[in-house]
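Re: export button greyed out
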Amino acid sequence: MPFSDMSREALESYRPDLPAPADFDERWTATLAEARAAGGEVAVTPVDAGLALIEASDVTFPGFGGDPVRAWWLRPRGLTATAPVVVEFNGYGGGRGLVHERLLWAAAGYHYVFMDTRGQGSAWGNGGDTADASGGGDAGAPALPGFMTRGVREVETYYFRRLLTDAARCVDAVRTLPGIDPTRVVVAGASQGGGLAIAAAGLVPDVAGALVDVPFLCHIERGVRVAEHDPYQEIARYLAVHRDREEETFRTLAYVDGVHHAARAQAPALFSVALRDDVCPPSTVYAAYHAWAGPAQMVVYPYNGHEGGQAYQQRRQLTFLDHLWENR
Amino acid sequence: MPFSDMSREALESYRPDLPAPADFDERWTATLAEARAAGGEVAVTPVDAGLALIEASDVTFPGFGGDPVRAWWLRPRGLTATAPVVVEFNGYGGGRGLVHERLLWAAAGYHYVFMDTRGQGSAWGNGGDTADASGGGDAGAPALPGFMTRGVREVETYYFRRLLTDAARCVDAVRTLPGIDPTRVVVAGASQGGGLAIAAAGLVPDVAGALVDVPFLCHIERGVRVAEHDPYQEIARYLAVHRDREEETFRTLAYVDGVHHAARAQAPALFSVALRDDVCPPSTVYAAYHAWAGPAQMVVYPYNGHEGGQAYQQRRQLTFLDHLWENR
Amino acid sequence: MPFSDMSREALESYRPDLPAPADFDERWTATLAEARAAGGEVAVTPVDAGLALIEASDVTFPGFGGDPVRAWWLRPRGLTATAPVVVEFNGYGGGRGLVHERLLWAAAGYHYVFMDTRGQGSAWGNGGDTADASGGGDAGAPALPGFMTRGVREVETYYFRRLLTDAARCVDAVRTLPGIDPTRVVVAGASQGGGLAIAAAGLVPDVAGALVDVPFLCHIERGVRVAEHDPYQEIARYLAVHRDREEETFRTLAYVDGVHHAARAQAPALFSVALRDDVCPPSTVYAAYHAWAGPAQMVVYPYNGHEGGQAYQQRRQLTFLDHLWENR
Amino acid sequence: MPFSDMSREALESYRPDLPAPADFDERWTATLAEARAAGGEVAVTPVDAGLALIEASDVTFPGFGGDPVRAWWLRPRGLTATAPVVVEFNGYGGGRGLVHERLLWAAAGYHYVFMDTRGQGSAWGNGGDTADASGGGDAGAPALPGFMTRGVREVETYYFRRLLTDAARCVDAVRTLPGIDPTRVVVAGASQGGGLAIAAAGLVPDVAGALVDVPFLCHIERGVRVAEHDPYQEIARYLAVHRDREEETFRTLAYVDGVHHAARAQAPALFSVALRDDVCPPSTVYAAYHAWAGPAQMVVYPYNGHEGGQAYQQRRQLTFLDHLWENR
Amino acid sequence: MPFSDMSREALESYRPDLPAPADFDERWTATLAEARAAGGEVAVTPVDAGLALIEASDVTFPGFGGDPVRAWWLRPRGLTATAPVVVEFNGYGGGRGLVHERLLWAAAGYHYVFMDTRGQGSAWGNGGDTADASGGGDAGAPALPGFMTRGVREVETYYFRRLLTDAARCVDAVRTLPGIDPTRVVVAGASQGGGLAIAAAGLVPDVAGALVDVPFLCHIERGVRVAEHDPYQEIARYLAVHRDREEETFRTLAYVDGVHHAARAQAPALFSVALRDDVCPPSTVYAAYHAWAGPAQMVVYPYNGHEGGQAYQQRRQLTFLDHLWENR
Amino acid sequence: MPFSDMSREALESYRPDLPAPADFDERWTATLAEARAAGGEVAVTPVDAGLALIEASDVTFPGFGGDPVRAWWLRPRGLTATAPVVVEFNGYGGGRGLVHERLLWAAAGYHYVFMDTRGQGSAWGNGGDTADASGGGDAGAPALPGFMTRGVREVETYYFRRLLTDAARCVDAVRTLPGIDPTRVVVAGASQGGGLAIAAAGLVPDVAGALVDVPFLCHIERGVRVAEHDPYQEIARYLAVHRDREEETFRTLAYVDGVHHAARAQAPALFSVALRDDVCPPSTVYAAYHAWAGPAQMVVYPYNGHEGGQAYQQRRQLTFLDHLWENR
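Workaround output, generated via the alternate export path:
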């Protein structure tokens, strides 16, 4: 039977009661404070991307532990006025690739920053350039996955604690870039990138908007139970070996679960979900969507899998941002 | 074993002797003449793609039989000087999709025309808008494949005769668009799009350049023998049923084989090939590359499958076109 | 888990409320009237099938739009009395093949007509000989599928509108053949053939019986939701691309849905269903069976997939027809 | 890459030198003598198959060890003259099924006997009725495979020794049936049935003809090396466990290898081979074909897999037998 | 979705009402009586396993019909006191293999007997040495499966009747071995071995304990309905061919169903179940566990498939036996 | 076709000319010197494994960078004389698991040390306990693979440089354990463990013997070209993304290639190879075997895949070691 985890009706009222860890806010406050205290500079180097209409730069900013994290920054060539920015995070296993790959938002007149994902970038696409320095120095340079269980024994060592911190610190860094209006930062992403956008919007609640497509890292326990594929199933395979670590593993995972981060997000959000998504099942997406503390809309793609709405959803996002600025 | 059809050394000297049908040129000359005689206008309608930097239009031009064929036309907003154009053809099963999907060439300062593929556009991506009118009127509206054997009993009725003619007529149409330099038309495409680019460059030999990636429709008989997947295997499955039509089928296919069209192409070409490509095996790509009558370069991706060089190859193409105009 | 969509008990009382389009009857009445008005002759050519006991002919009759549709006609050699006829329709992707392939009904003493399927016949078996003329002229000659979405944008252009009309017109034609008792026409088929038999029995309600095995094209919306394979999933893949055409697509499909045609059928019917059928799920079969307006029996094969009852079911059918004529 | 084990040219001259076991003829002579000595009667029971044109009987004849083996016997109803017979053997895992399943040869005017396969008949189709009595009494009743390694430790206990003997004894039995011309017995079969037809023609060299399609059990050692599927791979899996029995296993298999039986066959034969056959690879078929001691023709299906020529090949066989009798 | 047949909560209270055949006890009493009456000796031959710490013997004991069944017997070298024994049965398709493969229980200080499985032993591992003599003499020597439907037409001829009897007779034999305490026999096994351990504990109710892991042959009808793989699905495939034997087949299977044998077992038992087990689904395991007439504990592995708890479960078993003897 | 990379004859003479990097010895000498200089103690903690015959300890020794690496140490309980030791390394993705899992060598009278694999241990089996400390501190705790490309940009940061050093340092540590004869250390392993055994025997050339089964990490470039599965294909996927790093990647890999380490090994070796091994293809195994500088024997399993000889090979190894000590 084609994948489906709940009927459309059940999804629309699915609001599981998932309590966050008691020290969730305390821990994240401390984590961000430490990361900000670690210092490090935002370095910007111009890049010749061969694009007549778009100016490009290679940005390095301090992420978790002050580790250098790379990003591409694109904007309309010759743009002089201050303008809003879209900050996008990537899907699982991908890196920032080459500079000319993602042109939509700059072509639409926005600043655009695409964050590299520490340690990832070798599974598909055109590569990444950011080592997971606090997770292994040079040995943490981009390599094949999986990342779901790296350091999962406790939240302090967990890979995704570092990555979510990078996402929040990326927003910090972007606000310092010349020509960007720091009050108009939109976070965006699909799959893992959607999970990071949720986390960034929860950790930096004054972002101006969020574009969240088929997000991963939401309602993780259910994801492990119903998703048919990696990355959720990496956790199941890990627990099939480490048969005595179920409780501690889900305790760690709770700190990166988008359901809890969504409950702290204030910005207007545009979500999308695909009802045949066997990687990030719709119930897990709805759980985060329904937990979102700010205003939120959902776009449903009933016949799509994890690819979701693709260009159709981009068209919705272009309109959503148009209206967002209009209404402010 | 990972897919490989010949060693790298063997590929570099692989030049199979494949005679074209005796009336190859005569038939194609007649076909193009008929298509041009069928008339029809090039209609251009502005489109709001939501892109500050890029102007977009919906183009309809007369293809095979004068049938209306759709295309997207993108160019730098406010471009006043005459500029070169990249005309791209699409891969098998895809349509032109939505207008904001392919921004590279316009962002790089070129005119860019992306031709819809008659009847195709329903297998992946974001859809198509061109019916295979001469192949079934409204009933020929975009729908799921396969197309490899539609009308294959004789070349007159064969689907790809219509599609190759569209590609050539697209070049004709593009040359009439305002602001485009008709002497600087580059044809481009990957997979089926690569096969169409080869055909367009052979049928319209005064195009200025060709960007051909992992092309399909080349050395078809070998493709049927060694490729592991559709579309080449559609032909094998057809012949497994129509056990008495092997000879006539390959007779038809010879008219659309890129090896023969390449032998008539004069423009400088940049090819790419992936050595693990089990859809368009490297030997079939090399056969067309070695047959190319104009100057040609090959970029080899030894570890890639049919996805080929992706952004790495785009970077090569940006440079190739830069040098092309420089040298003229 | 082995495929199952509902428990056996649930199936037995499954009678979904599926309203037909308001103009269902009107449209079909018009469609048949047009087809009949298009004229065309029934041509019969003797064929040497090499069979001592059976006489064979190649029949061409006018189908939708008057298009020539082919069929094989077999009957006991030397049969002089008027006799009943079994008219069979084929499964998806198959053609009428060679004349000596289906001998059961002639060997059992009946006239037997096996209708070719326009445009199909290249996916398995031994080929077909009928072009989808109104759907593309010579370009519509048999070729590989898929057919589910050809012209689906509106019912006027939809492939299956043409095919269902062929099935009804085949009954018309058969009634004119010498030696056949026009009051004793039985329609039959499995899978797509079963869907066509249902449609023929609904469109030509005075047929004498129907043999319907694991029928396709019934309760289509549910089929798309629960079937694991093509052809139902062709529709899902089409809608995954054409994300904005869900409503219009199912509007078109309603006109060919066997549930509505069954509700207009009057003849005694023998159905069969396989409980592990992941191509034509049992709930979709029961929906048509329960909608059947005439007397109907169901044979259940609990452990079979789409192959269904095979020779076991044939034995039931031989008996069913024996009793049918006895009771008249 | 689509399956291919040798080029077509290489196949046409492939004549491996495979010596038969020294006592091959001696053992088989003794085996047949014992089986004939075991006695047992040929019992014929009329069956109502519901077929007006064909008379059917259920036959039981003594096979290996005198074990009762079942068969269906069909012939034109009312046939009075003595006529030739086609004796067919079945593919791996199948049984004789129901009586009305195979009608071609009777409809063509021949006597037709279809032998059940001891112990098999539960893997596909409509079942079998013959226990492998000498291989387990009632416990040997039809059940799922595999059979390739049953008793393979020595030829005396090997399953296929029993089955090949059944095939030879079936010819003996058929020659005693009323109305059958004992000088015009043709043996036939596809896959395992083809292997049995070869064996029967070698063990009973005065049969009148052989129809051998994509035969199994030929050049077995190569089959194990190159075939992609069962049944050949059952042997490989067995040897992967019984790592010390390679030599003795192939010693046993040599006694049932069609290459050696073909070398003893005298009758005219019509073979067919499919070049993409990954179950019975073409090289193994050519090895038997080239070893055939009588006159032989080969029909090649270049694009088919193990399904081979199907109805196309039947048409060839009808013609072949027509000419065979003509020439006698 | 990852395999799951019921939620964990539902499993914990799953106690299906499955009545045993009326003559269940009568038949088994008769079967065991016959087997015991058939006589035969327990033969013990010392084996040099190359193990300094462990003494090994090759044991042959009379099983069903007095057939010779092989087993390995291992015990601490130089052990003089009487000691308990663990008798283990093997999984489907495996044989006793080589003598040095299973060392845990002897290394832990126990006698250990590992019973070969008649006819099996060729599908994985290192082979078996026991023919299914009553099921085919030498022809019944180990060979590839399947065994699920051998002789299933009635319980008298069914393969598993013979195998369960072997398991009970193995306990009889073990009790006669020197140095083994006949009051402290523990039966053990995983998958098919677990089913045999259940049966042995039901048929020989005074065994001292049972270690039952992910048992097969329990609640068989449900296993056929929900398991995704063989061996349960062998039964479904058999019934898909023998469409008229559903009732008689399940009648036979009821005699070997672990649910009924568990209801007759008295010994303390340690069960384990894996919640993602798609071979022996958890509901079938719980059905037997809840039916167990003696004291029983269940260990749950929520993320494992059919591999179950592996070394984790062995650790539990070592402790369980330690406590078992302590408490006696 | 079943996997095969070369014929058996070709394998037996396959000696590719693969030059080691110029500074191979220099680098490894420096690496080992640094590791030895890093210090750290060998700690031994008794463990209650519940095994009456075997004494067990948990060992921690200093590996690469002095990082603590865990191992299990088993030996006959009460053994007083000095005895030889077998040091085993594990396959890819596995950890040392639980202490009672591998009993053969202790039961055979040897000391036995089973080294944990840093960072691995979460993909199958029962877990591991060693972090890849120099590769990420606590964040390097066991987690799912892949490891093939971790830090592969240069040999200094490459994961396998650390792991091979651990293997050599494990031999150092084992020689200090009480009761172990430091002149009689045998290294052993299958797959990755085989590659580590080769490396240990090359880096510590005075080990007394090597048992090398289906080794991984040998003739790596060919492995990437012909193996069908991970881990070799991890490298290909990495290079399919990092299209510009082919040369540097293979430069790094050369330092861990077993072909070069074998050329430095002096101890007698028993190799095994499986001719259908699609994970570690036979040609890569033969390349290392033929490069081995000491005396070596090869055992061939023609029908096995990567599971190789299993218990059959263990039997050969027991005998090989018996003879080894005898001859000294």
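Chain C has a mean pLDDT of 95. The button fix ships in the next patch.
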